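Annex B. Sample input.
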Amino acid sequence: MFQALVLDKSPDFSAAVRDVDDSFLPEGDVTLEVHASTLNYKDALAITNKSPVVRSWPMVAGIDGAGTVVESTSPLWKVGDEVILNGFGVGETHKGCLAGKARLRGEWLVRRPSAFSAKQAMAIGTAGYTAMLCVLALERHGLRPGAGEVLVTGATGGVGSIAVALLAALGHRVAAATGKAAEGDYLRTLGASTIIDRAELAAPGKPLQKERWAGVVDAVGSHTLANACAQTRYGGAVAACGLAQGMDLPASVAPFILRGVSLLGIDSVMAPMPLRQEAWSRLARDLDPRKLDAVTTEIGLQEAIAQAQRLMAGQVRGRIVVRTRD
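Annex B, continued. Sample output.
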């Protein structure tokens, strides 16, 4: 027996931590003993039933997991391997990792870098891995340290916190946008050089505004993304990976056709394995594990539902690591 955070709809929605056994696990060729998981924005949406994230019932929540292989018929993995799972529909259509065990497909897994413990890997999680995908996309577009300020929106969130730390470590001047004025010291500790009130970006703005940003990591969407594009310098790029403000994009084509701005869409869920491996390799190289302590809150599985509600209410800073075995 082990515990799992189970979401059900029979017929009314429920979320509860309960005891289950191996018969509750789904199909898959690799079984993990899960040492740690995490709460991402998508997890919180699913656990609070605020959005139709889950498409198969009952579901075990948790799009991320770090653990040890305890059974495998996959040629890719053997018993004892330390691995990470991010995305691939886990926690949505395939039972997830907010549990003591998970059964997954071998081709979804990445070897955990030796630079990180299981807890540290989940302090990064999909949010931090997505932040790294954003940085890689901006670099492929040509962003280099010294090119100018880089804006990070939603900076106290999971993606934003890791993005600030990564960009600063790589030598960029980082402007962090947040609605939490009291978190200025936290963001400066991560490496931000400028703190911006998110209200400056959150309201409707002009199609073209004063050029400011060499690059942008946006986890917010809506008017914030539109204003970020309108303020990006000639030839710059905006990596868009989130929708905390909304899924809409009330923008004009002006930044794209008059300033050559590029809008780079970032998907972490189905990203191909070579890109995932590159992202985790770069995280191991570029992210100081000590920075993770500043961004991480650790909780037990029993606390995950209440913490998901706090995350949806905007009351959470940084990353939440969930101990799946107490």
